[in-house]
Write a structure and sequence with these properties.
Shape: globular
Strand order of the largest sheet: 2-1-3-4-5
Structural class: alpha/beta
CATH class of the largest domain: Alpha Beta
CATH architecture of the largest domain: 3-Layer(aba) Sandwich
Mean pLDDT: 84
Radius of gyration: 18 Å
Strand content: 5-15%
CATH topology of the largest domain: Rossmann fold
């Protein structure tokens, strides 16, 4: 296709973790009137997927994964305003985090976007009441709760209990993760899914959406 070389350069920018290059290529795509969704799917998404594959094979480590995610996000920041103008919608999904640590959440968000999910990122340190409000308003398929510290793990349980009290629990699948979280904890608090890392989170999310 006409724009294949541009897409290849986008892929490489993400693999190399070059944020400035990713921004330049996104701007070039807009100048060439490349459909933004096509640039995202054939350029930046392919790039982050390749980064994920390299991470799974242990050819890349956490710093490279973070740099790739940041490069992709930089490119998307240029393209997304135009994408919204054209009203090219993706499947809705909500993702949240229970404490002040964001790096894991950011990686999960990036990988989910790369695999076709529409992510509503509520940021760090979000109260249970906010989760409930957003589930009621946005009606997401999934709610993701992350806890890096053992001291914030109980908040995941509190959110699930709050969903039950608000009669919203049957409307959304809940996934939990984070360094402190285990499969046993996920089962104990009644979560629908657990993921150890960003790559696994994508597969679990896909499975939960299919069954919802």
């Amino acid at each position: 296709m006409v724009h294949d070389e541009l897409f290849s350069r986008m892929v490489q920018a993400v693999i190399d973790g070059e944020k400035e290059r990713a921004v330049e290529l996104a701007q070039e795509a807009l100048r060439l009137e490349v459909p933004p969704l096509e640039a995202i799917d054939k350029g930046y998404v392919v790039g982050i997927q390749k980064v994920g594959e390299l991470f799974e094979k242990h050819d890349f480590f956490l710093p490279e994964l973070v740099m790739g995610a940041e490069a992709m996000q930089a490119g998307l920041a240029v393209l997304e305003p135009e994408l919204k103008k054209r009203q090219e919608e993706r499947e809705r999904l909500g993702t949240v985090e229970g404490d002040i640590h964001e790096i894991g959440k950011r990686l999960v968000c990036t990988m989910l976007v790369a695999n076709g999910f529409d992510v509503l990122d509520l940021g760090p340190d979000v109260a249970a009441e906010t989760f409930i409000k957003k589930v009621r308003e946005s009606k997401p398929d999934l709610l993701l709760l992350s806890a890096l510290m053992t001291t914030t793990m109980p908040e995941q349980k509190s959110v699930i209990e709050a969903l039950k009290e608000a009669r919203l629990r049957d409307r959304v699948k809940v996934m939990v993760g984070g360094a402190a979280v285990t499969p046993a904890w996920a089962e104990e608090i009644g979560a629908d899914g657990y993921a150890e890392n960003a790559i696994e989170a994508v597969e679990v999310a896909k499975g939960l959406v299919k069954t919802s």
